[in-house]
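Encode chain A's predicted structure.
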Amino acid sequence: MTTAGKRTERSVEELRRSGWRGRLVVLGPAFVAAVAYVDPGNFATNFAAGAQYGYLLLWVIIVANLMAMLIQSLSAKLGLATGKNLPETCRERMPRTGNFLMWVQAELVAIATDLAEVVGGAIALNLLFGIPLFTGGLITGVIAFALLALQGRGHRPFERAIVALLAVILVGLVSTLFRVDVDPAAALAGLVPQFEGTDSLLLATGILGATVMPHVIYLHSALTQHRMTAQSPADRRFLLRTGRLDIVLGMGVAGLVNLSMLVIAAALFAGTAVPDTDTLSGIYAGLTVQLDQVAAIAFAVALLASGFASSGVGTYAGQVIMAGFLRRRIPLLARRLLTLIPALVVLGLGVDPTQALVLSQVVLSFGIPFALAPLVWFTAQRAIMGTLVNHRVTTVVAAVVTALVVALNAVLIVQTLAG
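Encoded structure for chain A:
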């Protein structure tokens, strides 16, 4: 065993024996993944749901969050069990042509992801400072590049920066949540699964269908694969339990943020004549009218943090995708430009930013089955996972969730393309 291997073994064992302090050291990957669940697309969808139907669809956000926890736990476990991320496992287990096609669709997913994040950051900068959208897109891209540069110092600085931005999003929205008059009875009623006509069903489909982001499924397995190496069954159990805690906390924060968005919109916009609450700029204006400028600024700052953080995470995922499927790496600046240029072209052409967000979600929807199906299959194989193979019940539930998400995204695609 190498000296490096001995250091890793002692480190894991030491952390395992140090109780909660050891667990805190291992936390982090799920908080990076959680950023994908509070990206600018979620801002628009959740506020629109609350504005149109009040608290009716609160239960949808909770179900979506539980689905996210399950899927991200499978991705994290794959990296922990195999020492390989999902794209690398696909390259090993799939024919060359199939692997190449997987890479092509995954790259399109990465580009669509960055489009949504850059547009969201640009809108936030425009709302806060009046910066033109194209210039705001450039600024968002530069900030994301700076975040990725932190990786050169190890995983911790990058994770801390992302967690700090996630905290800004959380504080910005929760602080407003405490200022609005929530109807407790209506909120409790919103926890019971129900719909009000076809339109509410379609909106619920949009929330559920857009919950799972394919790029972060690829990424989460990479965040755990080399983080620490388990040298014993006890080490492996420790890392698995701590990873589950990480996911519960990270996805829990994302769920709280999403719930806050819907509740704020339900309390302030439902049943009112406030216009354009299905757009980010309309939400900003509506918060100013219904509450005050402070609430609007808090929303815009949270949106800005979301754009910065999710753009950085999306570009990181792009690196993982190319390195995993093709075993190729390109300079970080080139990687940043590859995904940034399409977003800048869209902004430069003057395309409606909200429409650009919608179209990016359609592209992401196409990529979901290509990430989910291999993940469920691989984690159900003992030859791949060893002792961390899925329990049969876990595999069945994951397969059902996969089928549901794919079906919902198919409906979402048809709905969007049909106008």
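Residues 1-10 have pLDDT under 50 and may be disordered.
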